[in-house]
Amino acid sequence: MAKLRREFQASLPGRVATMEGALETLGFGYVPEAAERFHQSAHSLKGTAAAYEADELVEPATKLTELGLRFLGTRARTPTELTAAAELLGELRRAVDRYRLRMPEPGA
User: Fold this and answer.
1) DSSP string of 84-96?
2) Most buried residue among 18, 96, 104, 108 by CB atoms closer than 10 A?
3) What values do phi and psi take at 99, rounded to 5?
4) Is pTM beyond 0.85 here?
């Protein structure tokens, strides 16, 4: 379990960066692959966060998943949604930092 938690912790910055990259692409126009990548990354994080005692990540990841579903469902994105997603990603990044401080890497 310690190895899996270590891998989860190490993956967090990359997961957030994936969502940020997808959002940046969506800022230029609707790209189905970017919307799918955004949604899938948020959904995956939401699903694994609780298993690794990362409760502070669940709420922003859930909200990001919901936004991703809207992007996919409407095949569009509004400026308001893009702004909300950017704010939620900032919240998620801060939550990741808090989690990593609270749960130092095993063996550290």
Assistant:
1) HHHHHHHHHHHHH
2) 96
3) -60, -45
4) yes
